[in-house]
Specification:
CATH superfamily: Ribonucleoside hydrolase-like
Radius of gyration: 18 Å
Bound molecules: alpha-D-ribofuranose, calcium ion
Structural class: alpha/beta
Shape: globular
Distance between the termini: 13 Å
Number of strands: 12
Largest sheet: 8 strands, mixed
Strand content: 15-25%
């Protein structure tokens, strides 16, 4: 399999960091750059974290700083109780070596990189979708030049779950619902890896301890960075482990056969008490729905081969692929 060229749009974030290590170590992924976005922490913090992660795990790969706030709303408060005060579970962040900071804003980095590799670049977006919406606004013609956009975000109710921040909304989509509705309406292939599959995929405490013991420096890092996040899951959901959000988007890129999907256009509610809710009209649904029917189909993940996903992550971290 030839390597997949990836731009990783991210708000690190503990699970973002775990997904970065996954991409850095998997031989089928060629990271072209990281683009930061506000979300789990402020843009200053997520950019600093992205530079730290890139410098440590993918030396030479640049970071471009992205949006500090949603398109039309105020920036949210950092989620310190989930991701720690520093966004990386309060682990020590060494000063050097940090990745170079690209001079361009993230959306320009995305445009230029897509245009340099037409038809080849996959965008893995695991934070609010502001940078992608800004790229479309600046250069709408890039959409058909992108190989695919794989998003961690949203929820479609397959387990009765529609959100993790409100009863109706998942964090990344609620982070910028206007941007998400733009991104899902653009003419590029979109796959959505939402809570329907990420909350079914759980890394247990034993699984994480095994990575620590068998995964060398990467496994040790995954363990260290996830201590605060694991405590949050235990406290908030009585879970003896962690949900696998952002690494599930990476898995979809590497092994889409692990996911059961449904096709159809997706809309995002942009106001009201259900703001941030994602609603798909399945392509098999015969009734007219004008607010959906003029838009392209997205691929929504409804189910996942959990052992397959966990084995892929483990073998990548432990170097046993
Ligand atoms: O809802 C899960 C998502 O929100 C993940 O991307 C996590 O990093 C947080 O941003
Ligand atoms: Ca994230």
């Amino acid at each position: 399999m030839s390597k997949q060229k990836v731009i990783y749009d991210t708000d690190p974030g503990v699970d973002d960091a775990m997904a970065l290590v996954f991409q850095a170590l998997h031989p089928d992924i060629e990271l072209l750059g990281l683009t930061s976005v506000f979300g789990n922490a402020t843009i200053e913090t997520t950019t600093r974290n992205a530079r730290f992660l890139a410098g440590r795990f993918v030396p030479g790969v640049p970071v471009a700083q992205g949006a500090a706030a949603p398109l039309k709303r105020a920036a949210p408060e950092p989620l310190a109780w989930i991701h720690g005060d520093n966004g990386l579970g309060n682990i020590a962040i060494e000063a050097a070596p940090e990745a170079a900071l690209d001079a361009r804003p993230a959306h320009r980095f995305i445009i230029d990189t897509v245009r340099a590799h037409p038809g080849e670049v996959t965008l893995i977006a695991v934070g609010p979708l502001t940078n992608l919406a800004l790229a479309l606004a600046d250069d709408p013609q890039i959409a058909p030049l992108v190989k695919q956009v794989v998003i961690m975000g949203g929820a479609f109710g397959t387990d009765g779950v529609l959100g993790n921040v409100t009863p109706a909304a998942e964090a990344n989509i609620l982070g910028d619902p206007d941007a998400a509705d733009i991104v899902f309406g653009a003419p590029w292939p979109v796959a959505i890896v939402g809570l329907d599959v990420t909350q079914r995929t759980i890394m247990s405490q034993d699984y994480l301890a095994s990575l620590r013991d068998r995964g060398g420096a990467a496994g040790r890092f995954v363990w260290d960075v996830s201590r605060h996040y694991e405590a949050f899951h235990e406290q908030s959901a009585q879970l003896k482990g962690i949900y696998v959000h952002d690494s599930s988007a990476v898995t979809y890129v590497l092994a889409p056969h692990l996911y059961t999907t449904r096709s159809g256009p997706v809309r995002v509610l942009t106001d009201g008490i259900a703001v941030g809710q994602t609603i798909q009209k399945p392509s098999t649904m015969p009734v007219p729905a004008p607010d959906w029917d003029s838009r392209p189909d997205s691929t929504v993940c409804l189910d996942v081969d959990v052992p397959g996903m966990l084995a892929l992550y483990e073998r990548t971290i432990c170097g046993t692929l």
